[in-house]
Amino acid sequence: MTLPIRLAMIYGSNREGRLCDTVADWAAAEVDKSGAFSLLRLDPAGLDLSLRHPSRDDPTVAGLRQAIAAADAFLVVTPEYNRGYPAPLKFMIDCASHEWHAKPVAFVSYGGISGGLRAVEQLRLVFGELHTATIRDCVSFAQAHERFRPDGSLPEGDGAYKAMALLLARLAWWARALRDARQASAYSEVAA
Ligand SMILES: Cc1cc2nc3c(=O)[nH]c(=O)nc-3n(C[C@H](O)[C@H](O)[C@H](O)COP(=O)(O)O)c2cc1C
């Protein structure tokens, strides 16, 4: 029997009144439907992070690093703020280092006209530095506030369902391949 893939879903926004909850809940439901993953949510709004970059001994940071270390794959759900990604997301990313290594990262983005894609392009650079494999396929919601119904549901037939199914299938492929590879030999021991 194949073990479920431990997927950490990372929230990009901690803004009061954020749309992130709606988008993340939709994404989580699609993750559940796929049956391949066990899901853990990492939400900057629920973390007691100080305004200053905390030390590695900080209990919140230690817990966050443990959760990232335990994950096989990541799904970042992020809006676009001023052509980039929100600061709390970068803060969370920077709290860990080797815990990210040799794991895949996929993106569900949303925003106004850009659908969050400019934030995702920047995040690909950041995650490259962290030795991750970013998944080419992305789910993007342009004019996101108009796409979801007031109850948070997304109309049947929306193209995002198909895009999400492909994203999750490819994320699962990478997650299994890299989990096997990490078990076969430690990434930290790769040297010239
Ligand atoms: C500070 C700020 C900057 C924004 N900049 C952009 C932008 O550059 N491009 C875009 O498409 N949408 C932009 N938006 C719209 C947001 O992507 C949209 O409101 C989204 O719902 C914000 O996510 P949140 O509600 O989960 O915080 C911006 C919103 C805020 C609050």
TrEMBL record:
Signal peptide: none annotated. One of its GO terms (molecular function) is oxidoreductase activity. GO terms for cellular component: cytosol. Residues 6-145 form the NADPH-dependent FMN reductase-like domain. It comes from the Bacteria. Coiled coil: none annotated. PANTHER family: CHROMATE REDUCTASE, NAD(P)H-DEPENDENT FMN REDUCTASE LOT6. This is FMN reductase. The lineage of its organism: Bacteria, Pseudomonadati, Pseudomonadota, Alphaproteobacteria, Hyphomicrobiales.
